[in-house]
Amino acid sequence: MNRSDKISSPISLSSQVSKQDRIIGAYLGLAVGDALGATTEFMTPNEIKYEYGIHQTIIGGGWLRLKPGQVTDDTEMSLALGQSIIDNNEVINIAVAQAFSDWMHTKPIDIGNTVRRGILHYRTSGNPDNDKNEYDAGNGACMRTLPIAIFHCNSSFEVLQKASKIQCHVTHNNIVSDVGTEAVLKMLTAAFNGNSKNSLEKYAHALVDKFPLYRYDKRKIENPSGWIVETLQSVFQAFFTHNNFEDILIDVVNRGGDADTTGAIAGMLAGACFGQKSIPVEWFNKLDANVRNSCTKQAIDLLLLSEPESFNTSG
User: Fold this and answer.
1) Under a CB-based contact definition with an 8 Å cutoff, are residues 197 and 243 in contact?
2) Alpha-carbon span 273 to 196, nearest angstrom
3) DSSP code at position 226
4) Which class in CATH covers the domain with range 20-307?
């Protein structure tokens, strides 16, 4: 793959990537990372090396037997959450829970156990808020958090945190999940507002200072599980090691494990930092066209709700 072969876009090439471009890049990066990583999900690095050498092409397959460019619950739940925000111009717990329930009615190809249990709790009780559970520290709330970051890209941390907990606690009411998701949200909103990739590491360091189990500067995390700690350790290692979208994604999905989710989170962060033009055109073109269009449209719609004046239709 030629790293100079990037997406051509109506947004002019510039070293100063616009906020709109970063936000669209984050949403497309989420979907691309999901589609790329789904192939190697639940594989070990050695299995990946034996099967693919280096996995760097969106080919589908994997344990879900996906079509090339097809995405999983990471992208689908993000779109469900984003649409609930657009419909209500607010993050409302019952609207979010209903959006997730409606999504589950579509019989998605993949759904996590904690997510399923949370949605069933809402269906049977009518209560969109799950009880605290020490075992619900999975990555399922973090993987879908991007619409919160876009909608609240100019909000205070207190507002961002409140919205995050609303959506997280529909399925994952756990302090470890909460703080990891909030760190990712801080990184995303900072990137949207023009902060450099290197400057974002202060948020990861602050997370580690308060919750040392998130420390990621030791051994390389391979075969990361669905536990949010291992997920973010793997993402942070890849994200802060490399300086372009392609290398970050190739690194993280070749670690195997819960690779669709590590790919999705790394993809949204890398897209937020480098913009949509940083995504290799081969990956962009392989992504399912409906997903590509839905992500782009929702990114713009959420940004319009956040700051209508920021959307420049003249290019």
Assistant:
1) yes
2) 7
3) S
4) mainly alpha
